Amino acid sequence: MLIKNALHTTKDICTRVICALLCALLAVTMLSVPEGALAASEGVTNAKVVLRKEANKDSKALQTLYAGEEVDILNTKGEWYKVRYGKYTGYVMKKYVKTSTSSTSSSNTSSSGSSVSSKIKALGSAPGIMRVGDENSDVKKLQQALDILGYYDGKIDGKYGSGTTAAVKAYQKAKGLTPDGYAGERTVKSIFGSCSSKSLTTQAAPGSGSSSSSVSTARYPTVDSIAQIGSAPATSRMGDSGTKVVKLQQALECLGYYDGAIDGSYGNSTYQAVKRFQTKRGMKADGIAGASTIRVLFGESPAGSSSTSYKTEVLDWYADNVSSVIPKGARFTVKDVATGKTFEMVRWSGGDHMDAEPRTDEDTATIKAIYGGSFSWRRRAILIQYNGHVYAASMNGMPHGTETISNEFDGHLCIHFKNSKTHGSDKVDPDHQNAVEKASKATW
Question: Less Cβ around it within 10 Å: N or C end of the chain?
Answer without folding.
Answer: N
